[in-house]
Design goal:
Elements: E1 5-9, H1 22-34, E2 39-42, H2 54-68, E3 73-77, H3 83-95, E4 100-103, H4 113-126, E5 131-135, H5 137-140, H6 146-155, E6 161-164, H7 169-180, E7 186-189, H8 196-202, E8 206-209, H9 214-225, H10 229-246, H11 252-262, H12 280-294
Parallel strand pairs: 1-2, 1-8, 2-3, 3-4, 4-5, 5-6, 6-7, 7-8
Helix pairs in contact: 1-2, 3-4, 4-6, 6-7, 7-8, 9-10, 10-12
Amino acid sequence: MHIHGVCSVLPTPFRAGGEIDHESLARVADLVVTAGVQAVTVLGATGEALRLAERERARVIETVATAVAGRAQVIAGTSADGVRTCVEFSREAFHLGANAIMISPPRAMKLSSESVVNHYKSVAEAIDLPIVVQDDPPMCGFSMEAGLLVRIAREIPAARTIKLDDAPTPAKTARILAAAGDMHVDVLGGLGGLFLLEDLMAGSAGVMSGFTHPEVLVEILRLFRAGDTDQAADLFYRIVPLMRFEFQEVLGIAIRKEVFRRRGALSDASTRAPGAVLDEGTRAGLGRMLRWTSQQEGLGRWISE
């Protein structure tokens, strides 16, 4: 199975920062699928996975798989510091309807490349699901060079999709594809989609992002694949300011939840403690940014304040 196109990373909605709001979760899943994405991802950093209990993780996958109802692929984050835990998370995701799993290297002191390869091999041997290899050094503390990512893909056929969150992603995409040679590898740009156009020009298969207006990303990919790079670039350059605003460190998840609330998908925009709470200045800035973006040519049909 090839994972490509626009993959939306979903937030996990809470009621006043407490229990999970499954009705809102189903609505936001429906919103992004209706926008035309090829896949949705749950239990990533945007989904506040580390703040969820195991029973809550299972319910999230179940809710989203039901809401998506086969209209897009469902990718579940199953990263864990221990191989056994990662395998258990992955098996559970499979039984709950996930079509693929996303795994970053375990967090461990003095982790070796051999340990990372064996981690992915152990999961692949235990569960028959495609694996998205998440390359996110800030999150796991381990940097995977292009050669290691290609080695994983070569030795583990189930792990031939890579999500890059290690800047600069366009240059790394090009190095991975060059090292892969004739072997097919799908590279998805991360980092909020901030380098989507450049990633596509470097040969990426798409983007995995929690951006709140995936309709625009879908259109950019459509234009690019149709050979209209100039029009894709024009649209991309007009939407980048909003993408940048949403991708702020610390505040990013809270901002995205607020935008989804304004779009009618979430009833409550709160994060679970110790998540960020938006200050009035950021709220005002968000309103101004949405207003400015909605006035840009070609974006008014998707963006509103």
